[in-house]
Amino acid sequence: xxxxxxxxxxxxxxxxxxxxxxxxxxxxxxxxxxxxxxxxxxxxxxxxxxxxxxxxxxxxxxxxxxxxxxxxxxxxxxxxxxxxxxxxxxxxxxxxxxxxxxxxxxxxxxxxxxxxxxxxxxxxxxxxxxxxxxxxxxxxxxxxxxxxxxxxxxxxxxxxxxxxxxxxxxxxxxxxxxxxxxxxxxxxxxxxxxxxxxxxxxxxxxxxxxxxxxxxxxxxxxxxxxxxxxxxxxxxxxxxxxxxxxxxxxxxxxxxxxxxxxxxxxxxxxxxxxxxxxxxxxxxxxxxxxxxxxxxxxxxxxxxxxxxxxxxxxxxxxxxxxxxx
Length: 325
What we know:
Elements: E1 2-7, H1 11-17, H2 22-29, E2 33-37, E3 55-60, E4 70-75, E5 83-88, E6 92-96, E7 101-106, H3 127-142, E8 150-155, H4 166-178, E9 192-194, E10 205-207, H5 210-217, H6 221-232, E11 236-237, E12 251-252, E13 264-265, E14 268-272, E15 277-282, E16 294-298, H7 310-313, H8 318-324
Parallel strand pairs: 1-2, 7-8
Antiparallel strand pairs: 1-16, 2-4, 3-4, 5-6, 6-7, 8-14, 9-10, 11-14, 12-13, 15-16
């Protein structure tokens, strides 16, 4: 069962870049399930994606047009799905596949600085709590299924290892080269030296040891949450089962033209709570977005239950779509 996760940064924009036919692109990539994030749309303009020839579509949109959006596209010939549930509108979509449960996630990012806030929470006094609530909603729902096979994937907007963000990886290498210069017992503030006019390709501080670098890394709340979440529930990072290399990223700052230099971060993950994985890879040669796809092949057979299979039972027709509305 091959599953792809891909933040496409606008479904219609990406479709135009890949030949104008997302159904044909799906067939070319040859996966069973496609989990797309940041669709940037609403129900009405996206009606046509309910009627793809070879794929059954599960879509979730934000209440505000053009915000967020996640979509799970299921190959009609090879997949089973009994139902789907919106955990957070436009952010987290859960689907049931008989022998596993799938969470398609597009998580918000916030680094603790209100001026750097991304998303529509900026004008809300409780913006930080709202962002945290998205992560907490995922964990709260996941707990219900701990005894089942679960896959959690998407743009998690966080890394949990230093080597997954080039800014931190280069500081780590610098400490390795120069050696540690101060005791671990000294507070973080005393281990930081502010750089004068740092470039966009470096962190604003010099770090005297690994501990201070790690503490600074986990100041970002999402990173700490993700690390604790993975460790608490013994989740497996499917890509890291097969590849421990550094400088393997899934997201780059396009405005600063960092992708050609491969200066990015690995924030698109496919996590699972079981070990039946054949392989996992990052398809960093695929362009059209500021992210690239991640694909994992799970050793999970198709669940056979034609009576309750939405993929076959409900044909993607305009009549069925309007009936649901």
